[in-house]
Amino acid sequence: MGLTDFFWNLGAWNWFIVAVALMALESVVPGVHFVWFGLAAVIVGFLGITIDIAWEWQLVAFAIISCVTVFLARRYASPDVTHSDEPDLNARATQYVGRVVTVEEAIADGRGKVRVGDTVWNALGSDAPQGARVKITGTNGNCLVVEHALS
Q1: 121 is in which domain, residue-wise?
Q2: What tens digit of pLDDT does each residue of 11-62 get?
Q3: Would you say 142 and 122 are in contact if contact means Cβ atoms under 8 Å apart?
Q4: Which of 18, 43, 76 is the last residue of a domain?
Q5: What is the DSSP letter of 82?
Q6: What digits encode the pLDDT tens for the residues 93-120?
Q7: DSSP H helical ranges for the chain
Q8: Do residue 52 and residue 14 come from a single domain?
Q9: CA geometry: angle at 58 spanning 28 and 3, to 5°?
Q10: Could you tell me which residue, 4 or 20, shows the higher pLDDT?
Q11: HEC letters along 20-57
């Protein structure tokens, strides 16, 4: 009895082996979503156990269920669909919008540096001398967009 005969005799239980392998790949390979294919394999495994269907139809069911799980995951588990109570948590620069800060290095020709707390940030805005007070109005990449503060 060879390895092929062993797996052939397992029947629908092979889908659970495939599911475990796909779940293991999910934990090893970053950025690839094998979990949805693993879920499809589990579903086909249960179908194969409860309903005696040919292996060809099991493959067709796996393909269809894989597509459905991937599309559902992309639609409902996508980061742009989920809402956070702190949307600017990982966008540190946008947390500073509205603050009035001090120019650390004079803003000349639209570029300079401002001090926010104990950190110096690149700044974009109209010319301002060192020590001037400016208000952060937005961000451009990792630069703070500033305008003269009304004091």
Answers
A1: 92-148
A2: 788 888 889 999 999 888 877 688 889 999 999 999 988 998 888 898 899 9
A3: yes
A4: 76
A5: S
A6: 788 899 999 999 999 999 999 999 899 9
A7: 3-10, 13-28, 35-50, 55-76
A8: yes
A9: 65
A10: 20
A11: HHHHHHHHHCCCCCCHHHHHHHHHHHHHHHHCCCCHHH
Considering the domain boundaries, does residue 111 fall inside one?
Answer: yes
Say yes or no: 69 and 98 in one domain.
no
The predicted structure's pLDDT at residue 128:
93
Do 52 and 114 reside in the same domain of the chain?
Answer: no
Q: 42-45: which pairs have CB atoms within 8 A and are 24 or more residues apart?
A: 42/15, 42/16, 44/12, 44/15, 45/12, 45/13, 45/14, 45/15, 45/16, 45/19
Check: pTM over 0.85? Answer yes or no. Answer: no
